[in-house]
Amino acid sequence: MLTAIAALVAGGCEYYDKPNLPLPRDFRVVTLGGKVLDRAELKGRPAVLAFWVPG
Predict the structure, then answer these.
(1) Cβ–Cβ under 8 Å, residues 39 and 21
(2) How confident is the model over 6-52, as pLDDT tens digits?
(3) Is 28 part of any domain?
(4) Is 44 left (phi over 0), alpha (psi -120 to 50) or beta?
(5) Are 23 and 42 in contact (CB under 8 A)?
(6) Which one, 10, 12, 35, 55, has least CB within 10 Å?
(7) What string of H, E and C letters represents the secondary structure of 20-53?
(8) Residue at 39 is within a domain
């Protein structure tokens, strides 16, 4: 049973899930509130960015 659970968990991990990657130099997004976030504003601050694309 434990082996089956471990296999399911390992199967759900994609190879591109690599946290702590550096932001590109040209990183810039506009929030729903109209605020601009760029690399300079986020530098030195912990941030979690989650992108969602419908479809």
Answers:
(1) no
(2) 665 665 555 555 666 777 889 888 888 999 988 888 888 888 777 77
(3) yes
(4) left
(5) yes
(6) 55
(7) CCCCCCCCEEECCCCCEEEHHHHCCCCCCCCCCC
(8) yes
30 DSSP assignment: E
Domain count, the chain: 1
Torsion of CA 13, 8, 50, 24, to 10 degrees: 0
- C-alpha 49 chain-centroid distance: 5
Residue 53 is predicted with a pLDDT of 74
* Token representation of residue 10: 């390992």
The token pair that represents 28 in the structure block: 């810039």
Structural domain boundaries enclosing 25: 19-48
Closest CA to 25 of 49, 10, 43, 9: 43
